[in-house]
Every structure is written in structure tokens, then in C-alpha cells.
Amino acid sequence: MVRLYAAPAGFLLAVTIAVLAVHYTVQRHAPVHAAKAARIVRLPEPRRRAPPIPIDAFVIVQHGDSFSAISSRTHVSVATLERLNPGVSPTALHVGQRIRVH
């Protein structure tokens, strides 16, 4: 009875050892994948500033705009905006109003 199971068990043991030996050899000689060899890190692209508005240009006031918001968007100082728009109250801007920036 023991002989009946010994032959298949021995065969399975030999096949398992052969498979493990081949697997070890293949893994040992396989080229290293690029992602494992060197970690590639992508840096974020630098932010680009909006181009300045052309000379003698106006901006249309949008909802929530203030002189400081217009200043940061157009790269024109608040003092310059106040000087260019003497009749405009910086605290009472209206949607659709034209503001001179240059």
C-alpha cells in the first residue's frame, strides 16, 4: 500500500523542486523593470503668470471684484488704479463698470 503512494508522491516532489529551480533561475537572470530600478518622479509644471493687459486698456468689473482683485489680476497697483479712475469709489464698484488700468 505504501508503494502505491510513494511513486506519485516522489514524482510530485521532483516536479516541485524542478519548478522552483527554474523559477529561481529565471528571476535571478531577469532584467530589472525600469519602475523598480529608478523611481521616476514628475515635478509639477511651473505656474505661468497671466500676460499684462495692453496699454490704454480697460477692465469690466465682475461680481465680487474690488480694486485689489483687479490689481492682482492686471498687475497694476491699487494706487495706480485710484489715480487712473478719479471718479470711481473703490468701495462702490458695480458689475459691468469699466475701470481703466493703463
If you had to describe this structure to a student in words, what would you say it looks like?
This protein is mainly alpha-helical and 102 residues long. The protein has 2 domains: 36 residues; 43 residues, LysM domain (Membrane-bound Lytic Murein Transglycosylase D, Chain A), CATH 3.10.350. It contains 4 helices and 2 strands; from the N terminus they run ααβααβ.
Describe how the helices and strands are arranged:
Blueprint: H1 2-29, H2 34-37, E1 58-60, H3 67-74, H4 78-84, E2 98-100
Antiparallel strand pairs: 1-2
Concise description?
The chain is mostly helical and 102 residues long. It contains 4 helices and 2 strands; from the N terminus they run ααβααβ.
Oligomeric state, counting identical vs distinct chains? single chain
Trace the largest sheet across and list its strands. 1-2
Mean pLDDT: 81
Under CATH, the homologous superfamily of the largest domain reads LysM domain
Q: What is the count of helical runs?
A: 4
Strand fraction equals 5-15%
- Tally of DSSP β-strands: 2
- Gap from first CA to last CA: 104 Å
What summary fits the major beta sheet? Answer: 2 strands, antiparallel
Can you write the helix and strand succession as a string? HHEHHE
CATH class of the largest domain: Alpha Beta
* Helical percentage: 40-55%
The CATH architecture of the largest domain is Roll
Number of domain modules = 2
Name the overall outline: rod-shaped
Low-confidence segments, ≥5 residues, pLDDT <50?
Answer: none
Content-based structural category: mainly alpha
